[in-house]
């Protein structure tokens, strides 16, 4: 039969309430997770949000994750050579001007700032005064001059003292080595090859660094991944992050449920949170939205715009007391019972019945 | 750095106040002065070696415990002093003042070495435990053998203790408690403890010593179910009375009106029918020792109408009144135990009626031992079908042995053994925590059992009541103290297939007193949606809830009604008669009415279903 063939190789039967099943499959272990986060102190690896707080963070589609991290894979030809990996690492971890100086003299009267660089620190980061001066020169509106090998003079033509002061603070906080936003980076070993794990995320700039394998860059900042790699990557990241957390907690949830959540959050090309402001708040049906949260708002808006509810969804049909269109309610009789009378044999039979 | 490590910081209530050179000596100095009474006994001092810090605590909220001070390997509480306490020459406060006993907080306890008993004192010992059981609180020591049970079971066992029925007050006959439980034949447990005796619980006990056999019984005691002996139940085992007080008063209303206690006249609004008032006396109050069933009136009361009537031109006519009688709650029955009539300080008449009902153990009643072994009666077995010993003793309870190993309540086994040996020897035992070595304890019980011709470990050959054949295995039997808990089926059982509905929503009521249904909530709904049982879901949410046939106008989509005079459905909006009868939930109809009141007109566009 036609329907049989149609269902061949399909894992999910038509009319299956996949959303509800996904929600229950994730929700049940979620009740057992503890809200408390454990901090594994010690080990040099970076701190990450884990467990339920992280799941909530993902599902709420927070713009900035609490603990953004990256895992940076390196090009095949250097990933096994520690020294080369180390030079990539140098280019990644952010060092601010403030971290390299021993002292600074601020002269607000003449709008000058003199930075005295620390030689030990310069040596440690394998850099010199000229390199730093050239990085500082990128700051807006400042004139940078290398006075001595370890002395940099910064001039700013500010209208007010406050503006000058603000500019100097910016100079001190300016990134002179590495990538902005990468607060910490560690070289990690996996087998023979190395990779770099970071605290802080900045994909745009990291992928531009020589030696970084841009096809194997991982960040847990979902919005950044969407910006850099697109919505499909963000969708995969959502599902993968959820899967890792649930796995770490020791629960087993089928990937298809998490993928469904990720799909529901991203199918329109942007990342929508699960809840009032996202997935649930954008349902088509007025009743379904009103039944969830902010009832009055949705009803009033519906009346203002003359909205129409076609009673297709589950929530609406339960509300008015109709059979829902899922499961056994998914199927309908294809034949009109009035058409049945047109068939000759049936007609005669029915007439005979009536006569009786 | 080096100079700092020799310094020892001193903190008072968490605030650094200075440094000392030798923290340990400093702490000792403070302690010595405290024992001498130079500084307050409420001060505690601790030297933390790892941090090289001295913490002095004098703030409130520290839990402290008393210890006997030991100096030079000798307890300061000498036999002479003990003798003086016995003759009441000195009291406990004397010991505190003289530096014989001191209170220590959690931080200072880190600095001491405590001996559990005087014979275990070594030269390093600084303190002696007054009583080892005092490491538990008073409530935990009220239980026996707490040290042999799993730690997590102790708070749960204490919880059962407060749910037990017993002789809660000796003046129960004079009291009008809102609800009270009274055990008929309360017994003092064979094994008691210091805590039990300190609380004087033996003067108002809440349990009975049950004869227990550890055995299965034809599957009737699976999963914490209990099999009770009917013969024992008939003789009063676990029998109790349940008292409930109903109260009412003659309230006065503004405008000189007031309530009256009396049998309402048949013309009264809300009259419940002649039968309901049949048991009331002349004064409208029920007579004592009257049997009463649900929804029968206890106190007849008439109140003035809720709203003031219009004055008729003939002056004040006959005053209308409203029935406001107190009836027995649904699902309850009993006997009127006592009636009290009195007056409040505001000179309004009040009536309190205590209803008594006797609760004989039945299927579903809850019992618990003192070791968090709770169970529900699953069978009140005929004694002739129950196992018996060679002496013909039939156990009161057949307890499933599977409830013991996984819960690790070894105290339950000890309780049974001790209870058995105590009952054959006519002795009471002490089961205070750490009061005796477990081995010695079992020896003591075993010796007594052997002396009286029983197996020393309490095992017994039992005979099957049905066949009379002896079981091949020996079965552990004993006597343990059991509590009947306040959770009884007769106060909880309820069923509903049809019944009252709420006026506003037409949905079934909730709760036992209103003959309510069980809520089919959101999560239950989700389960049916997830399973795809759409028709079952519709049946729950509509057919068995608030189904309402409603006329909908085919032209304008508004709700209409049926005109029974013209025999036509009418749409009030366009006065047409082209309406369709559809079934929707009443809650939805109510919702449409409510948004109509917000000046929003919802329309239902009908479409014929193919």
What this model shows, in words?
The complex is a heterodimer of chains A (356) and B (610). Chain A has 356 residues and is α+β, with helices and mostly antiparallel strands. Chain A is built from 15 helices and ten strands. Chain A has helices spanning 2-7, 18-32, 51-59, 82-92, 119-124, 129-136, 161-172, 203-206, 222-229, 231-248, 255-266, 286-292, 295-305, 314-320, 344-355, and strands at residues 69-74, 95-96, 101-107, 112-117, 142-148, 151-156, 175-177, 184-190, 193-199, 212-219. In chain A, the strands form three sheets. A four-stranded antiparallel β-sheet of chain A has the order 8-9-1-10. Chain A has a four-stranded antiparallel β-sheet with strand order 3-4-6-5. In chain A, α2 packs across α11. The two termini of chain A are 38 Å apart. Chain B is 20% helix and 27% strand. In chain B, β30 (559-563) and β31 (568-570) form a beta hairpin. In chain B, α9 (410-425) runs parallel beside α10 (438-451). Chain B folds into five domains: 4-135, no CATH class; 153-239 and 363-484, DNA-directed RNA polymerase, subunit 2, domain 6 (Dna-directed Rna Polymerase Ii 140kd Polypeptide, Chain: B, Domain 6, Beta Barrel); 242-359, RNA polymerase II, Rpb2 subunit, wall domain (OB fold (Dihydrolipoamide Acetyltransferase, E2P), Beta Barrel); 494-543, DCoH-like; 547-596, DCoH-like (Alpha-Beta Complex), CATH 3.90.1800.10. With 610 residues, chain B is an alpha+beta fold.
Descriptive labels:
heterodimer, A: 356 residues, alpha+beta, Alpha-Beta Plaits, 4-stranded antiparallel sheet, elongated, B: alpha+beta, Dna-directed Rna Polymerase Ii 140kd Polypeptide, Chain: B, Domain 6, OB fold (Dihydrolipoamide Acetyltransferase, E2P), 6-stranded mixed barrel, 5-stranded mixed sheet, 32 strands
Q: What Rg of chain B do the Cα atoms give? A: 36 Å
Strand content of chain A: 15-25%
Shape of chain A: elongated
Tell me the major beta sheet of chain B: 6 strands, mixed, barrel
């Amino acid at each position: 039969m036609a329907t049989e063939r149609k269902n061949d190789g399909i894992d999910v039967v038509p009319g299956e309430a996949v959303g509800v099943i996904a929600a229950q499959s994730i929700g049940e272990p979620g009740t057992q997770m503890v809200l408390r986060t454990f901090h594994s102190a010690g080990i040099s690896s970076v701190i990450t949000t884990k467990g339920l707080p992280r799941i909530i963070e993902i599902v709420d589609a927070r713009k900035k994750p609490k603990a953004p991290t990256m895992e940076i894979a390196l090009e095949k030809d250097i990933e096994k050579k520690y020294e080369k990996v180390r030079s990539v690492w140098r280019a990644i971890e952010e060092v601010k001007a403030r971290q390299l100086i021993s002292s600074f003299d601020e002269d607000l009267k003449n709008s000058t700032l003199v930075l005295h660089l620390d030689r030990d620190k310069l040596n440690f980061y394998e850099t010199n005064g000229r390199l730093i001066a050239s990085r500082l020169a990128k700051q807006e509106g400042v004139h940078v001059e290398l006075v001595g090998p370890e002395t940099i003079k910064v001039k700013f033509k500010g209208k007010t003292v406050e503006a000058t002061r603000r500019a100097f603070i910016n100079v001190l906080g300016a990134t002179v080595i590495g990538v902005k936003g990468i607060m910490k980076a560690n070289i990690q070993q996996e087998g023979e090859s190395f990779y770099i794990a970071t605290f802080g995320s900045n994909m745009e700039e990291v992928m531009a660094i020589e030696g970084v394998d841009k096809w194997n860059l991982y960040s847990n900042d979902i919005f950044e991944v969407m910006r850099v790699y697109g919505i499909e990557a963000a969708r995969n990241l959502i599902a993968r992050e959820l899967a890792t957390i649930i796995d770490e907690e020791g629960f087993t949830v089928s990937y298809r449920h998490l993928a469904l959540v990720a799909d529901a959050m991203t199918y329109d090309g942007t990342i929508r949170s699960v809840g009032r402001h996202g997935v649930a708040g954008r349902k088509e049906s007025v009743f379904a939205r009103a039944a969830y949260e902010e009832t009055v708002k949705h009803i009033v808006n519906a009346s203002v715009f003359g909205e129409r509810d076609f009673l297709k969804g589950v929530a609406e049909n339960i509300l008015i007391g109709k059979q829902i269109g899922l499961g056994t309610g998914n199927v309908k009789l294809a034949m009109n019972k009035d058409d049945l009378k047109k068939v000759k044999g049936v007609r005669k039979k029915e007439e005979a019945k009536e006569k009786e | 750095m080096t100079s700092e490590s020799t310094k020892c910081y001193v903190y008072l209530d968490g605030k650094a106040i200075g440094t000392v050179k030798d923290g340990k000596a400093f702490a000792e100095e403070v302690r010595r002065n405290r024992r001498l009474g130079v500084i307050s006994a409420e001060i505690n001092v601790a030297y933390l070696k790892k941090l090289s810090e001295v913490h002095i605590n004098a703030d409130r909220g520290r839990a402290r415990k008393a210890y006997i001070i030991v100096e030079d390997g000798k307890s300061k509480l000498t036999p002479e002093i003990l003798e003086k306490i016995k003759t009441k020459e000195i009291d406990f406060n004397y010991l505190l003042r003289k530096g014989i006993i001191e209170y220590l907080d959690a931080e200072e306890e880190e600095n001491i070495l405590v001996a559990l008993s005087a014979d275990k004192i070594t030269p390093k010992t600084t303190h002696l435990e007054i009583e080892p059981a005092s490491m538990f609180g008073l409530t935990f020591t009220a239980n026996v053998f707490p040290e042999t049970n799993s730690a997590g079971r102790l708070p749960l066992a204490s919880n059962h203790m407060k749910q037990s029925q017993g002789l809660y007050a000796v003046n129960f006959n004079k009291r009008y408690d809102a609800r009270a439980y009274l055990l008929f034949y309360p017994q003092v447990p064979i094994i008691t403890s210091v805590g039990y005796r300190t609380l004087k619980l033996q003067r108002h006990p809440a349990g009975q010593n049950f004869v227990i056999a550890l055995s299965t019984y034809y599957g009737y005691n699976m999963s914490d179910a209990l099999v009770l002996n009917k013969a024992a139940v008939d003789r009063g085992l676990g029998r109790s009375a349940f008292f409930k007080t109903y109260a009412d008063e003659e309230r006065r209303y503004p405008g000189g009106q007031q309530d009256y206690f009396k049998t309402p006249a048949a013309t009264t609004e809300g009259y419940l029918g002649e039968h309901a008032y049949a048991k009331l006396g002349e004064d409208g109050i029920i007579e004592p020792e009257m049997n009463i069933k649900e929804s029968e009136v206890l106190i007849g009361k008439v109140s003035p109408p809720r709203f003031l009537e219009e004055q008729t031109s003939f002056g004040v006519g006959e005053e209308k009144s409203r029935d406001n009688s107190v009836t027995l709650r649904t699902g309850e029955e009993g006997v009127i135990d006592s009636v009290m009539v009195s007056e409040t300080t505001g000179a309004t008449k009040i009536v309190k009626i205590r209803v008594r009902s006797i609760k004989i153990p039945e299927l579903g009643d809850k019992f618990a031992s003192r070791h968090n072994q709770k169970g529900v009666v699953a069978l009140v077995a005929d004694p002739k079908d129950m196992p018996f010993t060679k002496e013909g003793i039939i156990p009161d309870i057949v307890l499933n042995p599977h409830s013991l190993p996984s819960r690790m309540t070894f105290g339950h086994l000890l309780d049974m053994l001790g209870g058995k040996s105590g009952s054959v020897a006519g002795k009471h035992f002490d089961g205070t925590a750490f009061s005796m070595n477990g081995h010695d304890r079992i020896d003591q019980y075993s010796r007594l059992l052997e002396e009286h011709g029983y197996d020393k470990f309490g095992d017994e050959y039992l005979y099957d009541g049905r066949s009379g054949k002896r079981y091949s295995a020996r079965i552990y039997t004993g006597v343990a103290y059991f509590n009947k808990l306040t959770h009884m089926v007769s106060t909880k059982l309820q069923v509903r297939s049809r019944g009252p509905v709420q006026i506003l929503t037409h949905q079934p009521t909730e709760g036992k007193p209103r003959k309510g249904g069980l809520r089919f909530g959101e999560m239950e709904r989700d389960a049916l949606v997830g399973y795809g049982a759409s028709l079952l879901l519709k049946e729950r949410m509509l057919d068995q809830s608030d189904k309402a046939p409603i006329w909908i106008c085919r032209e304008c989509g508004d709700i209409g009604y049926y005109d029974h005079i013209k025999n036509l459905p009418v749409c009030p909006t366009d006065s047409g008669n082209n309406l369709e009868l559809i079934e929707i939930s009443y809650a939805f109809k109510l919702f449409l009415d409510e948004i109509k009141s917000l000046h929003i007109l919802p329309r239902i566009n009908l479409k014929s279903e193919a």
